[in-house]
Design brief:
This protein has about 350 residues and is mainly β. It contains three helices and 20 strands. Strand 18 and strand 19 (about 315-325) form a beta hairpin.
Length: about 350
């Protein structure tokens, strides 16, 4: 269905929301009535003041809302009703008439801020207004509550390109396997729990990877080791890794990892962008169940793009591969979802 918002404004608002969600760029904080404790309603009132102050702005207006997935439907309805009342108290008529001036209102979260936005078009000019507050200044009742947090630990780093990492699923054994890419070929490194290399295997049987942006996933379960490549799957064993048995297969890349903390706070899906190799990344743990209604996402910053996420033997942990843009090294982190704020 064709958008009722003019094309330039659609683009402007889309970019605004994308930046607010995906890039943790600090925005100037608005003046708040109480610097130590404010509410979402306080921010909405300030946004309404900025909207009615737009030159030549006049009603009636038709409201449209966009909110972060962290705000459940009930919460969203509450703040939408509050903003509608704020406008009407400032003598701006809110109607459902398709011919009325569209006013798009958004509420999104960055890792550090809550950003309120308003976008409209007045006299052939796109007008955007922002109100941003540090998350820490909001009263707890104003934002959804996350009953968990993410902890991370650097467990391995190397100048060699790391494509993937997997924990060793083998009864009492512990440790991990790193899949590296050097000179067009794949190597698997088996490590103990301290990160010391126990065995190195050149997977020449898998053939060369000619792509400028190679992708591969490794799975280690007991004595069944496999590598998934863009057009084939290979099985190997540590006794004779060069004899990897490969066959053409339809690619079935790993599904998003879902972690479950020990306190039983439901499943949390790990998500990251990873598409821009020139910027830092942000790992989010997002509620994966309707029973977690009202819970906010939690996250952790990384020093570069996240290249792979692989669930561990422990359902509350995962291995994350990233490239550190400051050092140029590839790094493997152990991520654990723990209970408590």
């Amino acid at each position: 269905m064709r958008s009722l918002l003019p094309r330039p404004l659609v683009w402007c608002f889309g970019v605004l929301v994308f930046l607010s969600l995906a890039v943790a760029i600090p925005l100037p904080a608005a003046q708040s009535p109480s610097p130590e404790s404010i509410s979402l309603d306080d921010g909405l009132r300030q946004l309404a003041d900025r909207v009615v102050a737009i030159p030549n702005f006049d009603g009636p207006v038709r409201l449209g809302f966009l909110h972060d997935a962290n705000f459940d439907n009930d919460t969203a309805k509450d703040w939408q009703d509050s903003f509608r009342q704020d406008l009407e108290s400032r003598h701006v008529s809110v109607v459902e008439d398709p011919a009325a001036t569209p006013l798009r209102i958004g509420v999104v979260e960055t890792p550090t801020q809550l950003v309120l936005s308003a976008a409209t078009r007045v006299a052939d000019k796109d007008e955007v207004r922002l109100v941003a507050f540090p998350r820490a200044t909001f009263r707890l009742a104003s934002l959804p509550v996350a009953p968990v947090r993410l902890e991370k630990q650097l467990v391995y780093q190397s100048a060699d390109r790391i494509l993937d990492a997997s924990s060793i699923w083998n009864g009492g054994s512990s440790g991990m396997v790193i899949l590296t890419y050097r000179n067009g070929g794949l190597d698997a490194l088996r490590m103990d729990s301290s990160g010391a290399v126990q065995q190195s295997a050149s997977l020449t049987g898998a053939g060369p990877l000619l792509s400028r942006d190679p992708r591969a996933e490794i799975s280690v379960q007991s004595d069944a080791n496999s590598v998934i490549l863009p057009a084939k799957t290979c099985q190997f064993n540590w006794a004779a890794p060069a004899d990897a048995k490969c066959h053409t297969a339809k690619v079935a890349w790993r599904e998003p990892t879902v972690l479950t903390p020990s306190c039983g706070a439901g499943g949390w899906k790990l998500l990251a962008n990873g598409s821009d190799w020139t910027t830092d990344d942000f790992l989010q743990a997002v509620p994966d169940s309707s029973t977690q209604k009202g819970s906010a996402a939690v996250g952790s910053d990384f020093p570069g793009p996240i290249l792979s996420i692989n669930g561990e033997q422990n359902p509350s942990s995962a291995l994350v591969v990233t490239r550190n843009l400051r050092t140029g090294d590839y790094e493997v982190y152990k991520i654990t979802l723990v209970c408590g704020n």
